[in-house]
Amino acid sequence: MPRARFKNLTGRTFGRWTIINQAPTSKHREIMWNCLCLCGTKKAIRGYTLQNGDSKSCGCLSRERTHIVRFIDLTGKTFGRLTAISRAPNDKRKNTMWNCKCICNIECIINGYDLRAGHTRSCGCLRTEIIKRNGSDHPNYGKRATEETKKKMAILRTGRMHNKESKRKMSLSQAGENHPNWKGGITPGYRRIRNLAKYKQWRSDVFARDNYTCQICDSRGGTINAHHIQSFADAIEYRFNVDNGKTLCGPCHRDLHKEIA
Question: How many CB atoms lie within 10 A of CB 72?
Fold first, then answer.
């Protein structure tokens, strides 16, 4: 069977492609052509896909058609305190941006999705006003939420995660003297004492004397604790006295401390 006659396609246009010159054949011995797309993209394309219309662009044509279908015109619409005036250039992530004007006459550029979803409702003036409205100046000052409102608020908060900055602030608000169990910074000193070889020996002596058996429920082995009969914090002179200790299992130890508290 005679081979098909070679066609020189240099300079011809197929869709958005303009053929520059012939490229090396593919590994399947297909004729390839170096092409320039209307958007500036250069790529080697198979000759038969150009001629039969399977390849019309580098993909920009399909993206534009999809964008036209999905595009929602927000011009003139109001979202909270913002009114969309005109479309702005897309951001670096190709998100649709809009020039907006706030009721305080400040103009800003907002992501279209954030406008429609209600994530952005002002240029920032609304947040500033809410922060300033504290105490008796707040419109809800002195009011109590109904049970139905509380349930709705709980549902809205379910599954929400605090960001790292919020977690850091929450941690600082409960640190040091701000913590309800603050006792003047004695924890580091207690931890140092409990790490001493003398303290570890005291625990071993208490366990050996009691045969590693809980002195309340008579269970043996498992998680056991050497409990100070007289308080570790108050009875300083009896901290390492074996007679001041007794072996307790985990549950009994917790229950005993609950009773003491």
Answer: 10
Vertex 112: Cα angle to 124 and 121 (nearest 5): 25
The sign of the dihedral angle between the CA atoms of 204, 208, 210, 215 is positive
pLDDT tens string 141-153: 778 888 999 998 8
Q: How many CA atoms lie within 13 A of 23 on its CB side?
A: 16
Residue 229, both tokens? 């009969």
87-133: pLDDT as tens digits: 899 888 878 899 999 999 999 999 988 998 888 999 988 888 877 77
pTM check: above 0.70: no
Residues 6+ apart with CB under 8 A from 239: 193, 199, 202, 228, 232
The amino acid present at 85, given as its one-letter code, is I
Residues in the chain: 261
